Amino acid sequence: MSNKAGISGHSADANPAQLQTALALHQQGRLAEAEAIYKEILSSQPEHFDALQLLATIAGQQNKLTEAIELFHSALKINPEHPASLNNCGNALQMLKRYDEALMSYERAIAVQPDNADTWCNRGVVLQALKRYEEALESYERAIALRPGYTLAYNNRSYTLLELKRYEEALLSYDKTLALNANYPEPHYNRGNALLELKRYEEAILSYDRAIKIKPDYAEAYGNRGNALKELKHLEDAVLSYERAITIKPDYDFLFGQWLHTKMKISDWRTFENDVQQLSERIELNKKASSPFSVLALLDSPSMQKKAAEILVLEKYPSMELLPKIPKRARHKKIRIGYYSADYHNHATVYLMAELFEKHDREKFEIIAFSFGPDREDEMRKRAATAFDHFIDVQTKSDSEVAKLSRNMEVDIAVDLKGFTAHCRTGIFALGAAPIQVNYLGYPGTMGADYIDYLIADTTLIPESSTQHYNEKIAYLPYSYQVNDRERRIAGKVFTREELGLPTVGFVFCCFNNNYKITPATFDGWIRILKKVEGSVLWLFEDNPKAAENLRKEAVELGIEADRLIFAKRMPLTEHLARHRLADLFLDTLPCNAHTTASDALWAELPVLTCIGEAFASRVAASLLNAIQLPELITSTQKEYEELAVELATNHEKLTAIRQKLEKNRLTTPLFDTELFTRNIEKAYTAMYERYQADLLPDHIAIKP
């Protein structure tokens, strides 16, 4: 809201001295005294323009926004072309998030006074809020052309470039902003955000530190500083940075879950029970507590996971009408499937999906990759690039540009392979990339959005009695929802126990899940198992040294020697698969199961023991075990899980029989039959497409074996 009050001269009947006295008081900040005089003038002259618009300005300054708008409207009935009133009315409307009305007010002001840089800048702010970023950019550039040293317009222009994924340009624009005013904290912060997107993490931290030096209570700078530290694997420092942000701003959007998730990555459970209780309570109260992904490994509640997703979508990715509704399309000769992902490189998603892309029936389907991740030129990137009919790198395109490109290519079915995982681009689907939009594989839960039509699952993951916890209609595949690449190589290298740090004798339990999936309850169960199986060890994946240190400390506190926990370092996938041969039994986690790691173990002929939960993420291993016909490894309570683990470790004959069954079933059951899976998912896509062509709304689909 501008503090400058213009005098129009339209009220000749006013006492000029009285008005000038009020205006002087107004400009001195003595608002109550000025307000009293304006009201006195209006009591005798209700249509006194100057008194009305200046009284409206005071209402705006006092944050009485609805009153301000009413007064501006009254003034503008008298003088419809008063640019200051139009601009200030737009500001009040903007602050109430009545963006379309604000935009109209600014545009009326510009029509009268096209050389006002402030109004152009304000117009850009509203267009930015409406996510009309290209238009916002033009508006800021007009403001800068009119006032070359306009710091605020430069800063806002830079932010818009950031939203348009034009990160290098944004960086240069922030440098220009800081050249104008180096003591302005926001450009330092947003410059850090550009560097964060460019994966220049150390430089990003320096920018955040500069912002914090100028503004010590800058919660957002501490929050994103934590994100940069996390990317650098400085997880303890990231936790501290998040904590500082939360201390400054306890209701910082979605940071509580990020903080808790990062603590889980280093197995810091000091306040675990209280933290999870707080998380649950905040989500229940519709607070913006956490991204849905962080919730998956903490709360085995499909209703709570759905609520977390809906809260995020409403705040960050609401259904947007920036692009026109996609008109009904005529039937294509081939159904056009778009797969959208940041993971077309050596990543779990493509390890699972590569052969599916290759085996799609090209007589019936045309498949297109939209890649918004890095081009690392590694083995899986090269394989994926050749598997598609079209492989399009869109990492530098905005969400709007990607959605428009998808529409121009007339994609029939857009498959989001990211969901709410790292580097997702949910905005593409909020804008509408295709008439049918599908959530598959990357995110094991509902997206909570009305613009995602289908979730691909199976009856183990989502029993019919649980469909109310998922916004999407369910496309049920037979056997398991998870695709697998039957071509995955296992290295011929034969490891010895000694070279991997394992004891020469004794039973080896293992879990190669990410550390954040290990909860105190799961770990306590593992310790009880180790205590009952003499000489056994637990072989875990080491994502970071701090997690290993904390888990060993926890084991000692629970009465187990630290050296009975062995930690596996990262190694190439083929060798990682080969080292599974040295383990005897894979112990799954709850509430977030092994996903790709379970498939890895079964592919390497290592039995997986799981405890099935309530939500999608806690039922994945059971889905895989059913598809490979090993339901005897699915338990339904913690007690059963521990008892069966001990039995398999102490009953050699029983475990041997299961291993032999796994060896026999590996290539004869559906789990690793990529050809069969491809035909089934194609049937699901076809059923979705036929419903669309018949003008039917999406509905649950069940593909029969």
What does the model show?
- With 705 residues, this protein is an alpha/beta fold.
- The chain folds into 4 domains: 16-225, Serine Threonine Protein Phosphatase 5, Tetratricopeptide repeat (Alpha Horseshoe); 263-316, no CATH class; 335-476, Rossmann fold; 498-672, Glycogen Phosphorylase B (Rossmann fold, 3-Layer(aba) Sandwich), CATH 3.40.50.
- It is built from 30 helices and 14 strands.
- The strands form 2 sheets. It has an 8-stranded parallel beta sheet, covered by helices on one side. Strands 10-9-8-11-12-13 form a 6-stranded parallel beta sheet.
- β11 (585-587), α26 (596-603) and β12 (608-611) form a beta-alpha-beta unit.
- The chain starts with 15 loop residues before the first helix and ends with a strand.
- The model is unreliable at 1-13 (pLDDT under 50).
Write the layout of secondary structure elements.
Blueprint: H1 16-27, H2 31-44, H3 49-61, H4 65-78, H5 83-95, H6 99-112, H7 117-129, H8 133-146, H9 151-163, H10 167-180, H11 185-197, H12 201-214, H13 219-231, H14 235-248, H15 255-265, H16 272-284, H17 292-296, H18 302-316, E1 335-341, H19 348-359, E2 365-371, H20 379-387, E3 390-393, H21 399-408, E4 413-416, H22 426-431, E5 436-439, E6 454-457, E7 473-476, E8 508-511, H23 520-532, E9 537-541, H24 545-557, E10 565-568, H25 573-579, E11 585-587, H26 596-603, E12 608-611, H27 620-627, E13 634-635, H28 638-650, H29 652-665, H30 674-693, E14 701-702
Parallel strand pairs: 1-2, 1-4, 2-3, 4-5, 5-6, 6-7, 7-14, 8-9, 8-11, 9-10, 11-12, 12-13
